[in-house]
Amino acid sequence: MNDAGACTGIRSQLGVYLTGAIAPDDRATVVRHLAACADCRAELAGLAALPALLRRPPVREAAQAFQGDDGTGDGAAGDEAGDEAGDGMAEDARPRRLARRVMRQRRRRRWLLAAGALVLATAAGIGWALHLAGPFASSNPPAPGSETTATVLRTRTIDGVTVLTNAAGYTLYWFGPDSAAKSACQASCARHWPPVTGPATWGPGVTGAIGAIVRPGGSLQATYDGHPLYTTTADTGPGQAKGNGVWSHGGEWHEVTVS
How far apart are CA 17 and CA 11, in angstroms? Predict the structure, then answer.
């Protein structure tokens, strides 16, 4: 679809579409447009990575603050310490320099998180404002409870392993051929391994990075730590993990484990 006016109206709703706070009729309109408009799909793909910036696990953040490229420590801080030693600085100055550098890194991360939150919130706010006043506004307000809600991710112990599940307790899986930005499971594969609808949100015990990718038809698929998420029709009830280790549709499937 190349209608600039239609694209403008759709892009104003991408924020609320991404967060799940969009009426079902408008969601269907957005999905139909995205299926035919590569430019709007690219716009949505750019926004889809923002939810993962809004929450970083404290343990992982602390590890990254001190871990260098070789996994043994903060590489930049180590270089500074070496320079200080070469300049004849007193050893008791090194911890202070390291502490100041770590604080600068933390402040920089906080600014990045705040910027990501602001962009996403602005997109959602503009989308709602234009939605209420624009051509896509419905003459009648949606019925209570009709808005699309985010998929809640939870954890459950199955056969001694803590795995990621949906709110109903069904095990979630990741697919070997996938990348962090694209699903390799389409057509008949997606019928046997249904993608988990995005956006998603954290439930108790879930600490990984949550995001979303845009599927070819324009729908959102939830991701966890860079893996697009799926359920399987082989699991006929909660608490099962029949899809783990299965080779299907050109690749191996794995249950999503949570440390």
Answer: 10
Domain ranges across the chain: 4-54+115-133, 59-106, 151-255
Rounded distance, CA 229 to CA 245, Å? 15
Q: Kindly give the confidence (pLDDT) of every residue in the chain, 259 residues in length, as a single tens digit, with 9 standing for 90 and above.
A: 457 777 888 877 777 777 666 777 777 787 878 877 878 877 777 776 555 544 444 444 444 444 444 444 444 444 444 454 455 555 556 667 777 777 777 777 666 666 665 555 555 554 444 444 443 333 343 344 334 468 899 999 999 999 999 999 999 999 999 999 999 999 999 999 999 999 898 888 898 899 999 998 889 999 999 999 999 999 999 999 999 999 999 999 999 999 7
